[in-house]
Design goal:
The structure is a single chain. By secondary structure, the protein is α+β, with helices and mostly antiparallel strands. It is 50% helix and 16% strand. The N and C termini lie far apart (37 Å). Strand 1 and strand 2 form a beta hairpin. The longest helix has 22 residues. The strands form 2 sheets. It has a 3-stranded antiparallel beta sheet. Strands 1-2 form a two-stranded antiparallel ribbon. It contains 8 helices and 5 strands, in the order αααββαααβαβαβ. The chain folds into 2 domains: 40 residues, no CATH class; 108 residues, no CATH class.
Length: 152
């Protein structure tokens, strides 16, 4: 958490020797916590035995489209599912310039850890691999994604 303390210290220059809780008290507000809850603890849903991000399924016309794609033989299931299992971190926010690339990476690392917990709690009988996705993988910026181990 030293890295988090350093990042916050740069963002809030008058912070003195604040610890993380001091930053929350001085600069945070409960609305921000509620607003950002789903970034760190997203909703995942099961579509025909495959876990995906609910927000991606909703933005892509719902589970019926994903089910149809999975039933087609045009692409391998893993290739189809991968499109429903990751997010580009900077693009979650309107202001994409507020963090440096290194700070975006650190935010993504924190999100990786919380997604692991969310997936484990929401789907205790399944195993997942949650990872940071490099810009070369996403095509533009740092991201977070997951795979379901043992799924076809």
């Amino acid at each position: 958490m030293d890295q988090l303390r350093e990042i916050l210290g740069r963002k809030f220059k008058d912070a003195g020797n604040y610890d993380i809780e001091d930053f929350v008290y001085a600069y945070g507000d409960p609305k921000q916590a509620l607003l950002l809850f789903r970034v760190f603890w997203p909703q995942f849903i099961d579509v025909d035995g495959h876990v995906v991000l609910k927000t991606i399924v909703a933005s892509e016309n719902g589970p019926s489209k994903l089910k149809a794609l999975l039933n087609e033989e045009a692409k391998p299931k893993q290739e189809i599912l991968s499109g429903y299992r990751w997010l580009e971190i900077p693009y979650l926010f309107k202001d994409t310039s507020s963090l440096s690339d290194g700070e975006d990476r650190y935010l993504a690392e924190l999100i990786v850890e919380t997604w692991k917990g969310a997936l484990c709690m929401q789907f205790p009988d399944k195993k997942f691999s949650v990872k940071l996705l490099e810009p070369e993988v996403t095509g533009s910026v740092i991201g977070v994604g997951f795979d379901e181990q043992g799924s076809a």
